[in-house]
Amino acid sequence: MTEAHLVESGAQAELGAYIAHKLHQARGASRVLAVASTSVKNEALHQMADALWNNREEILAANEEDVRAAEAAGQPASRIDRLMLNEHRIRQMMDGLCQVAQLEDPIGERLDTILHPNGMRIEKVRVPMGVIAMVYESRPNVTVDAVGLCIKTGNAAVLRGGREALRSNIALVRALHKGLQTSGVPSEALQFVERTERESVDLLIRAVGLVDLVIPRGGAGLIERVVRHAQVPVIETGVGNCHVYVDASADVAKARDIITNAKTQRPSVCNAAETLLVHKSVASAWLPEIVPHLVRLGVQVRGCEQSLSILRDEGFSDVSAATKEDWSTEYLDLILAVKVVDSLDAAIEHITEYGTLHSEVIVTESEEAAAEFLSRVDAAVVYHNASSRFTDGFEFGFGAEIGISTQKLHARGPMGLREMTSYKYIVRGDGQVRG
């Protein structure tokens, strides 16, 4: 949708004008921010971090209203967890902003230099994208992560969060604006869309000439809608149907720790494990130990026919039968599908069919099996003997992340500073002309 269409949309004219105003403010601020010094941007990040803490009572009060409304609406515990803020989570957001400030500024980095035979010097230099729109759902921490990464990379941020976190996001943005107002970064570099109509998303993702990049972050429905209808460039952040495969040569103590962490440490996030694959040679001995352990931790286990048979032979029946749908479901909850596989090849075939290119794990002491898995499994992040929960920008040393990309163009995996930049060529000559 062009700029003209933003304000010529019939019954949606008022909404279009509202979005257009936000985008024009962001575009103007992006030109100032693009040439801001590293010290100015870092000072803005620290000021925003301080403002979060200074305004924490307002933020937590707003979040409490959102949580109460979600509970009244019957939202599951996993969604409540994604929505909820407390002082610890506010401190985590502050730490993320401060860590981003400590990272090397990628803007202006010289990526390549070419000396032309005629004496021209051609430099490839990293530059901001411009205006980045984020469309996301119930996690208010995304608001802070996105703003921090955008400011550090010289990009203006236009944010459209979900209805269920609206009060929380408004309070967070109000605090972040207070921080920006005491810095050298224009506060217009942060725009928040308070309108929650679905059409507001359509207007953002079709704003050719005003939005340089859109990043959707949320459930499969939201991501599919943005990818399908966007007319501006999109980085797709995918669903996390993640697997842990316990190989024939696994250290079962490691396997126990890894699957416990991957499933239960925070089940509501996209890097949590959803399916456990177990090699048949270790299944009979290990499943009767690990499944009751997970059930005691509150996990609902849904097993294949072979795993159910093994467990029932040991007198354990607190497991339901898995359906084909279970293999392709991102639960985001304390639910785990379990399947016994005949071989490493069978595990890889299962992941290839049902995985979402996010994060996949092999637990094995065989370097040969690990190498085979790591090379053949197609995912943004592939692990050997470690939990999938590490697929996270903060854990990767990025300070924060704006999402986890499951596509292959430009960005893949946790997206930090460099994934939010483009580049341009700067050519220096001395009167050269082409013959």
List the helices and strands and how they pair.
Elements: H1 3-7, H2 13-33, H3 38-54, H4 56-72, H5 77-83, H6 87-102, E1 110-115, E2 121-128, E3 131-136, H7 141-152, E4 156-160, H8 166-181, E5 190-192, H9 198-205, E6 213-217, H10 220-229, E7 242-246, H11 252-264, E8 273-279, H12 280-296, E9 300-303, H13 305-313, E10 320-321, H14 324-327, E11 335-341, H15 344-354, E12 359-363, H16 367-376, E13 381-384, E14 404-405, E15 413-414, E16 421-428
Parallel strand pairs: 3-4, 3-6, 4-5, 7-8, 7-12, 8-11, 9-10, 9-11, 12-13
Antiparallel strand pairs: 1-2, 2-16, 14-15
Helix pairs in contact: 3-6, 3-8, 4-5, 4-8, 6-7
What would you note in describing this structure?
By secondary structure, the protein is an alpha/beta fold. 44% of the residues lie in helices and 18% in strands. The chain has 16 helices and 16 strands. It has helices at 3-7, 13-33, 38-54, 56-72, 77-83, 87-102, 141-152, 166-181, 198-205, 220-229, 252-264, 280-296, 305-313, 324-327, 344-354, 367-376, and strands spanning 110-115, 121-128, 131-136, 156-160, 190-192, 213-217, 242-246, 273-279, 300-303, 320-321, 335-341, 359-363, 381-384, 404-405, 413-414, 421-428. The strands form four sheets. It has a seven-stranded parallel sheet, sandwiched between helices. The chain has a four-stranded parallel sheet with strand order 5-4-3-6, sandwiched between helices. A hairpin with a 5-residue loop joins strand 1 and strand 2. The two termini are 41 Å apart. The model has no long low-confidence stretch (mean pLDDT 93).
